[in-house]
């Protein structure tokens, strides 16, 4: 599959501070909007 990719883009991974509350008045962050993407190596059990 990788051989068939004509163009790809590398993106940096950033660490961001977590927030204590995911809501404010009538707004609530849910799902992927509530957290940053996990670091790539976390899924490998390291």
TrEMBL record:
Gene3D superfamilies listed in its UniProt record: FAD/NAD(P)-binding domain (3.50.50.60)
Name of this protein: FAD-binding domain-containing protein
Protein source organism: Halalkalibacter krulwichiae
């Amino acid at each position: 599959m990788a051989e068939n990719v004509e163009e790809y883009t590398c993106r940096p991974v950033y660490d961001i501070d977590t927030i204590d509350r995911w809501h404010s008045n009538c707004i609530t962050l849910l799902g992927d909007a509530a957290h940053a993407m996990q670091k790539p190596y976390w899924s490998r059990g390291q």
